[in-house]
Amino acid sequence: MKTNDVILRTVTKIVVFIILTFGVELFLSGHNNPGGGFIGGLVLSSAFVLLYLVFDVETVHKGIPFDFKKIAAFGVLLAVGTGVGAVIFGSSFLTQTFRELHLPVFGNTELATVVLFEAGVALTVVGVVVTIILSISEDV
Amino acid sequence: MNNIVVMPMIIPLLTGIILIFLRSHVILQRVLGMLSIIAMTGVSIYILKRIQLDGILRIDFGGWLPPYGITFVADSFAMLLVLTTSIVTGILLIYAFSSIGKEHEKLFFYPFVFFLITGVNGSFLTGDLFNLFVCFEVMLLSSYVLITLGGRKIQLVESIKYVVINILSSWFFLLAIAYLYGAVGTLNMAHLSVRIAEVGQDPLLTVISLVFLLVFSLKSGLLLYYWLPGSYSAPPTAVTALFGALLTKVGIYAMFRVFTLIFYHDINVTHTIIGIMAVLTLVGGSIGALAYKDIRQIAVYNIVIAVGFILVGLAVSTEAAFQGSIYYLIHDMIIKALLFLLVGTMFYLTGTAKIEKMSGLIRNYPLLGWLFFITMISLTGIPPLSGFIGKLYIGQGTVETGSYILLVIGFMSSIIVLYSLLRIFLNCFWGETIISEEDEVPLKKGMLIPCVLFGILTITLGLGAEGLSTFVQDAAHTLMNPEVYIEAVLNSNQ
């Protein structure tokens, strides 16, 4: 049975970008405010899951040709990597650091290694959530 | 700052992650896995030696000092277990190479073994109760995957029980942590110990300690072992051996840590209960080991007996008994891995796990038979094999405190162990051979070598107990004197 989902498709095409933007916003604001890699990652993955629901798996795979298991693994590697990086630079494991830099467009910006750690967390969450949803859908 | 302390957890974690990317390159996965195990073993030996020189080592994650940050603490007790874990896992991986099959290897078998080791080593090393919970979860999640991987019906049936019981006990664990935090406002183990010593262990804290006891006895199979026989006989041999050697030991370790470092003031209540539970475990395990005719079930009930026996050492709490428990823990990790490998290999060779359907295996596979014999006398505790020294010290501890019931039941269980394994030996290895030469399934070298390695290990551990004694004495000394541990953790200028 083919359902008529024109409205859903049309709305999704716009809403996905809103969700993705909101996810990135949450991720970045997490540095000093509520938010962060985990929540940002969840919101980002909800956008992907919405895409998978509205369009079919093959279509979305054409657009996003990644193995989400590998994305999760890469995320963990990134997060652990920032911890090990601290060891290489001679401080305690998982030490995070930051520096004020003057960037052309953004002005004085604080760059912190925590962002890398959080990016790892976000990637892991996206990878794991999408993998779970895809595995469940395969079973049905 | 001693970044080396975190390495026994980081090396397997990184290895596991990297192996995910090498999914289809099975040979590369094996090589990297072995290299990582060798590195872990080397690092563990190095840390163990350094502890003897510099005392207990610790690392504050991110430079946040205890009690605020998370710390990893390496004392001799933890490091002895970490070292044994690395060696046992290495040998079990060799067995897995030839037995686990391509399907498993391509379905992330090795990464999850390494994540399991991450959790196990993390649990041994952590100095923070909440972090202990997290490491337990890392270990359990990997074990959920390993127990279901392959997806045979029996595995799925047993894994549901296993997952449900562990989620329940994790929930209790979280509850106990919350109670404790509400009561004393800290979760750093050394800090907890100081605060509870200051305010005294009132009935409320004793009740909280009993919730912890409930959690750890579920995990280690002390009295609450009813979930254990089913779930440990479902997965493939290499996985069962890994579980049998490591998982219950982590629960036992946690129990030792918590009841020697934090809740050691109200011994009349807590340690008496542990003693009663140990006795009931010994009796229940013995009945199980005698009742079944399935070699896998007999092997599983032997785990239960060992858990009870090790906890006798905690129940009497003298330095000699602690030494005995530590020796016995190390011995048990090795010998249980060997026992499960042998049982799994017998199942592979004959296609049955029933005692009465096997006979005369020693004529077909002599080396296997003699290895089983060594396992049997080592588990019973006959010198010079590794089980002897542990039993001796635990016995000494019970005599010192006059706990003769524990002494008698503990040593009676040794006889039951001997009898249950002797039954397998007499029925399966002796007697008329029923496998003709044409039907004989060839025994793979890759399966025999790990068994031989474990056999050598149990003999060396028995003969070379002297060489280990400095480490074990130091470990028992730290367990007996919590202030040594506290001093090392809370002293800020290390």
Can you walk me through this structure?
- The complex is a heterodimer of chains A (140) and B (494).
- Chain A is mainly alpha-helical and 140 residues long.
- Chain A has one domain (6-139).
- In chain A, 69% of the residues lie in helices and 9% in strands.
- Chain A contains five helices and two strands, in the order ααααββα.
- Chain A has helices spanning 6-29, 37-54, 57-63, 68-88, 114-139, and strands at residues 98-103, 107-112.
- Chain A has a two-stranded antiparallel ribbon.
- In chain A, β1 (98-103) and β2 (107-112) form a beta hairpin.
- The longest helix of chain A has 26 residues, at 114-139.
- Chain A is globular, with a radius of gyration of 18 Å.
- Chain A starts with 5 loop residues before the first helix and ends with a helix.
- Chain B is mainly alpha-helical and 494 residues long.
- Chain B has one domain (3-490).
- Chain B is 78% helix and 2% strand.
- Chain B has helices at 7-21, 26-54, 76-99, 102-106, 109-125, 129-148, 153-184, 189-199, 203-220, 228-233, 237-262, 267-291, 295-316, 319-350, 361-364, 366-380, 387-401, 404-429, 445-463, 465-480, 482-490; strands spanning 57-60, 71-74.
- Chain B has a two-stranded antiparallel ribbon with strand order 1-2.
- In chain B, α3 packs across α20 (465-480), α11 runs antiparallel to α14 (319-350) and α12 (267-291) runs parallel beside α18 (404-429).
- Chain B is globular and about 70 Å long.
- Chain B starts with 6 loop residues before the first helix and ends with a helix.
- The model of chain B has no long low-confidence stretch (mean pLDDT 92).
- The chains are: A mainly alpha (140), B mainly alpha (494).
Distance between the termini of chain A: 16 Å
- What is the share of helical residues of chain B? over 70%
**Overall morphology of chain B:** globular
Global geometry of chain A: globular
Largest sheet of chain B: 2 strands, antiparallel
